[in-house]
Hints:
Elements: H1 14-24, E1 30-31, H2 46-52, H3 69-78, E2 88-91, H4 94-105, E3 111-116, H5 122-128, E4 132-140, E5 144-146, H6 148-154, E6 159-165, H7 177-190, E7 193-197, E8 223-228, H8 229-232, E9 241-246, H9 249-266, H10 271-275, H11 277-282, H12 284-305, E10 313-314, E11 322-326, H13 333-344, E12 346-347, E13 349-350, E14 361-365, H14 370-382
Helix pairs in contact: 1-13, 4-9, 12-14
Amino acid sequence: MFSSRLNWRLPLTPFARLLDEKRSRGETILDLTESNPTLAGLAYPADRILAALGDARSLRYEPSSAGLAAARAAISEYYSGCVAPERILVTASTSEGYAFLFKLLCDPGDEVLVPRPSYPLFEFLAELDSVRVANYPLVYYRGWAIDFDWLVRSVTERTRAVVVVNPNNPTGSFLKKDELAQLVALCRARNLALISDEVFADYGWEEDSRRVRSLIDTEGVLTFSLSGLSKVAGLPQLKLGWIVTNGPAVERAQALENLELIADTYLSVGTPVQWAAASLLDTRKRLQAQILERVRANRDFLAAQIGPDSPWRLLDAEGGWCAIIEAPRIRSEEEWALALLAEDHVLVQPGFFFDFETEAFLVVSLLTLPEIFQEGVRRVLARVG
């Protein structure tokens, strides 16, 4: 009776079952996976945020398929005026942005190429639009890089786009300029679009001249850059994202026209958050400063605990909110996560959640409150001293 696209109901893993049991018993868990900024003990300018949402203009409904001009102007200002408002389409979230792009670029059965490891969302979004996902690996050697040989071999007649996450979640790796040049050449040669998820782009930890922060000025191939308030301003509950379109003029114009048609079918973005966009984006500097201070301090603490002779290894990263710890391979990732949860009351994410190709990796959130993070890390590392 129901669509096969919703066939996701798999049995609970032992890890998920144990977590549910401990939570149902009300046990205290040191959660090292916290990625919700509104629950991370940050100081929000509450009065300003609430005042922005009280704009009287929100009482009038004036639907605009690409988004209100005021909202697009505010997003343009976020990019320091480097993006014309006409190239911006407002969405309810980055997830909706992906859904719009899959509708724009793909027929049922077409495919998109996405990085591995990465956040486990693409397959669900793609399946809802009857699109297939194929993976290309990021390889690690003193930093992460795209395996271009694999990527090129993965392109088929049904491939329509290559997705990059910049910086990647959870690896924290940014796209490099030479990688972008290769991506543009590949996409141009194979008539593919390039989709860049840039929600963590403001969270680079150090400057690096090799790095590509954003693809908003990529003109050689049809390119879409996605971002939103969720990470930029630490406001996931307010549901405002956007797509910036770039590329050759004719293709860009056609893409924008078709995206507006798709968006006009849904008109999903609320009016209050659009009128509030300028004020909300203006608050981001205060929140981003707190978040960067938090993730750097937690990263420094973690690095200090894992010395050169430790059986644990902290993988290099450049930004984002996550850290990846390579665990001693005396257990599988699932066994590590289960033992830490059952015996030490510490919640971490095993690498297979993010499609790591090899074992054993544990992923922790650097957004976690410092006192919880530090005690949790001590318990993790004490497992093998």
